[in-house]
Design brief:
This protein has 326 residues and is mostly helical. It contains 14 helices and no strands.
């Protein structure tokens, strides 16, 4: 909602007519300049967001594949970050590159999240890994309240309650199963990504693609010494899948997301990308026959339901000068 309405003395009907006139004028100017209308740009933005979510949702499809499931998690995490960096670097303007102390914790949080998420994928079901990582938004709200003294609104309280119930359902139901360690690792990946979210908020005046590219580059560099020491050899088919994992599952979606959020509200973007955790276990089930336990689906439903309530019913207030970064 525009803050200008708070100071307007026009009636709602007059304000509506004025807004329509401005929209028509903007649309006409866009057509004269050969640019898409705001409505067309918004539709294009939604399609780009959907494409990004679809590509992000293929992580389990790659990691759970017979060709890659035998590789160590650190190997997959490293090369995924390497090839994603190759895709992202060309989109970073030279003038956007600059040093800030906050870059250090941001990149370390991201590197930890990268390893933990891939590690969780190899030790538990794809559904549990992605559902528990999506608790990052809830962890970010809790950490923001505790460390930054940020206020928690009603929507966030609802999301926290649903996430707590969902986490408890997934972890408790599989505590004695072979997936228990993987579930805890997935939960840690969500907490790590919450650290990334908080640092991105702190660095919101920086160029979004620069931060994303730097995150991936550091995530790769941190793991390269382990890769050199482990001396894990990949077959040509494995190399092909790892390149696709980095380029199409990780790098390209960030490019699409950055282009999309210039035309779509943050609230709508957050709802559209919820397609990712829904589709991720579906692809794994269709391709590799992995069926998650009912407790995982029920807990995941609670987590995603809380996020839906958070963004659909209680949309968050925008933060000034925020950059477009997932």
């Amino acid at each position: 909602m525009s803050h200008g309405h708070l100071f307007s003395r026009d009636s709602p009907e007059e304000r509506g007519a004025s807004e329509r006139l401005r929209a028509e004028r903007s649309s006409g100017e866009s057509r004269l300049n050969g640019e898409p209308s705001p409505r067309a740009a918004a539709v294009r933005g939604r399609l780009l967001l959907l494409a990004a979510a679809l590509l992000w949702s293929t992580s389990g499809l790659f990691v759970k594949s017979p060709a890659l499931s035998s590789l160590p998690a650190m190997t997959l995490a490293c090369w995924r970050a390497v090839f994603a960096t190759v895709v992202l670097v060309p989109f970073v303007p030279r003038g956007a590159v600059r040093w800030r102390p906050g870059l250090v914790p941001m990149t370390l949080f991201f590197a930890a999240m990268n390893v933990l998420f891939i590690g969780a994928m190899t030790r538990t079901t794809a559904a549990a890994a992605i559902f528990l990582q999506y608790t990052a938004t809830v962890w970010a709200a809790l950490f923001g309240a505790l460390l930054l003294k940020e206020r928690i609104d009603r929507g966030t309280v609802a999301a926290i309650a649903c996430a707590a119930a969902g986490i408890g359902w997934i972890v408790a139901a599989e505590w004695q199963s072979e997936n228990a360690a993987g579930n805890l690792i997935a939960l840690a990946s969500g907490a790590s990504y919450a650290g990334v979210i908080l640092m991105l908020r702190h660095l919101r005046d920086e160029h979004g693609p620069w931060l994303v590219a730097l995150n991936h580059a550091v995530a790769a560099l941190v793991l390269l010494p382990w890769i050199a020491a482990a001396d894990v050899s990949l077959t040509p088919s494995q190399w092909g899948l790892v390149v696709m994992l980095g380029v199409f599952q990780m790098g390209l979606p960030y490019v699409l997301f950055a282009a999309a959020v210039r035309h779509v509200r943050a609230q709508e973007a957050a709802l559209i990308v919820l397609v990712e955790p829904v589709l991720n276990p579906l692809w794994v089930w269709l391709a590799w026959g992995e069926t998650p336990p009912g407790s995982t689906m029920a807990g995941g439903g609670l987590i995603l339901g809380g996020l839906f309530v958070r963004y659909a019913i209680f949309p968050p207030r925008p933060i000034a000068t925020a950059t477009a970064t997932k």
